[in-house]
Amino acid sequence: MRAGDRKNAKTCPSCGAKNRKSLYKRWWFIVIVIIVVLGVIGSALGGNSESGQSANETQNATQAETQAKETTETKPAVPAEYKSALNKAKLYSDTMYMSKAGLYDQLTSEYGEQFSAEAAQYAIDNLEADYKKNALEKAKLYQNEMSMSPEAIRDQLTSDYGEKFTEKEADYAIKHLNVNRKSVFMDKSCGLEGSVLNCFPLNGQISKNEPLRPLQGYPYSS
User: Fold this and answer.
1) For the whole model, what pTM was predicted?
2) Cβ pair 129, 165 in contact under 8 A
């Protein structure tokens, strides 16, 4: 028998035993090989994907860091004069209850702080001040220390030669000004004209024998 015939024969011509198929020809071996090959390919593709993603993340982080650094480097520092003007404006606002216009004039005046217009404007723009409250505190000062009438106080608050508050700020101050109208002693010598009381005590509490001084246009409500 030829060698090729012996190889293809189902039994061994010498011993009669069955011939076994080669390992690489068996179906289960072929399936295992296919699975292994697919696994290797999938692993390679996954590795490339993760590697690409990691590279993109690294690139994005580097770009963000670079942009932040450029922003920090290009942002100009606040000049010392500007900071000083802001500190001075806060001091005037907290202790002297000045208006926005009053603060600006005081900061730039040659008889005041003599800051540059730019530094003064920076101070005004960055100052956290309640100008309505400042107007009210200033109105209380005029009432308690100078015994001024509400209308006179309003004029002083809004005057260009006075405090330079806005009309709304002055209205707020007068509306919330604590005027003790009921402390006024009602007497014929006070001279009521409608709802307007044309006299006012010197100290807020009077008796019949205490002298009075006139106060024009003072509104009275019992």
Assistant:
1) 0.51
2) no
